Amino acid sequence: MISRYVYGQPLETGAVVMTIPKSSQEISILHMQRQKEFLTLSCQMDDEDIVYGLGEQVRGINKRGFTYISYATDDPNHTENKHSLYAGHNFLILSRKKQPSFGIFIDYPGKVIFNVGETKRNELHISAGSDCTVYIIEGECLTDIARQFRELTGRSYIAPKWAFGYQQSRWGYQCEDDIRRVVDGYHSRKIPLDAVYLDIDYMDHFKDFTIDNDRFPDFSGFTDSMKNQGVHLVPIIDAGVKIEKDYPVYEEGVQNNYFCKDEDGRDFVGAVWPGKSHFPDFFNSRARAWFGHKYKWLMDQGIEGFWNDMNEPALFYSEKRLERIMDEILTMKNENLDLHSFYQLTGKIDSLSNNPDDHKSFYHDFDGIKVRHDKVHNLYGFYMTKAASEAFDQIAPDKRTLLFSRSSYIGMHRYGGIWTGDNASWWSHLLLSIQQMPALNLCGILYTGSDIGGFGCDATPDLMLRWLEFGIFTPLMRNHAALGTREQEVYQFEQLEDYRNIIRIRYGLLPYIYSEYMKSALNNEMYFRPLAFDFPQDSHAARVEDQLMVGESIMIAPIYTQNATGRYVYLPEDMLMVRMKSLEDKIYRVMQTGHHYIDAALNEVVFFVRKNHMLPLAVLNDDIRSTADLQLLHNVISQRKDAQEITAEDVMHTAASIYEWIGYAQDYAEYTLYDDDGISKNYTPQQKWIKVVKSKESLNVCIS
Ligand code: GLC
Fold it and tell me: How many whole angstroms separate alpha carbon 411 and alpha carbon 69?
């Protein structure tokens, strides 16, 4: 049951898609106080209660014991003392033992503070702006509450199938030759690859919707030649638009009032990569349509995927603040800087970037309503992504386009995915990434992953391997690194065979990963889940912070510590342990419920299959280069000469025969396999849902 409480006059954020009548009663499950500027909600927690959610945040799966602030921030240091990352995901579930659990969504796009028992151990304290909508979701169990929230906020974005392949990125690929070298680096070593990313270097002076013609002299020809090799190019689009006379995006934006305004009604000036820039007012539907249609220019040159960046929005400085700080610094020029004055100086410089006070100095035209940016800050990245997605629906209505964003708010999951931003090549960030995944899924964001190997700092060979061993399960599997860090393409490491084998395991798992992703999206389920969602009665499972359920059949227990040759794993039920050094080198062992120490060599993928469940594994030949070369059910069926006349029975038999099935069944195991062309948006026809049943003795396949 979902109850909606409205306070003051909240803005329509677009987070929800369902119409829930306004509750006529007072909120009872939490204590509410409304003052002029703030609304606070609080409730008691018992010692054993657990708080799940809050999406992209620091710290563990259970959020208790810290304060989290929803205020999108361009901060590349994701250390555990931070309170905000790039998003505003204001949804949590309070899982209670003695009383019914409930979910709470604060639909407020400005700053929201969640003190989850930091100040008072057993008190949850939430504070938001006084004009906001609060949704309380009650349900039978955690899974039911999560599903209702997803119904409330709408179906998750579905990426094209190629975007489930392995992808390589780096800030610093400068030209066609750099990219050719990367593709060749993979292909010559027979490592599959589906996409290479174009970071800001592809643009002419970091101007959106431009290409540096010296470095990319024939962009559409280049895009085509890459696609012929199975590789998609994915360019970055930044939020800031360079101020430069005769640059059409700038000129059109100024002429039509498409940019955010300062308090005097002039176009707000802040700086990002290209220097002084204006910021499209994505809150305005006309500006949104205008910016969204700009992507077409790249799509016309063969591009089928984009990543939206710097859309918190990131600000190196605002013009006005820079002027003031420069003047202040100049007064210090001839001073003998001591302890205090020296730190004053560095403090002044630090205060330039991403200063929240600058958010109070510009405004949006929210389709006729003037709104100060800080009041709607968390929606900016969402609306940038919505701009692109709405335009794609017109430019390429029948086709899926890859789209993901750095900043987001609840509801953006309908338009695209996210990546978790500028992490570092640290073991602690591998763990953080594992813990972020279920929290993001709970908030609807299914197409997600972290920069594999870490963005900042230098990845060590062992970290890279362990990260890949987890990354093969994330829908977005992208290796990305920052300018100035060591080269991180997997072929840059010794013992290449290990890296190759792990990436090939991803392609082997692809029928399962894709099927589970699609089922989660279409049925409003979570692809990654904390164990407690599947084993609600098990008090050990509820405490596990470093194992995840992945789809309906798999549990993973990744290794995230240096020099570990194994780890403790908790099995909530008997499971089949699968250890793989490669698709060909697999060991199986049935293990009993309980605590175990599991060995896992550095080059070994280990996962567990649930009892009476199974999963398909694609059989790969040595030469596969991308998802397009995989023997997947849809490809196999559609390539048959008699494709028109294929019966349901044929489909079942094909499904059963083209994959290797890994499962563990006392009597029988069954699995519902979903597959489609991976391109079109026609998701529902029955023949795409194949129920495969397998017993020890025989293989039975039947249509569900
Ligand atoms: C931001 C992005 C990062 C990108 C860089 C340069 O830091 O988060 O992924 O590589 O900008 O565009």
Answer: 18
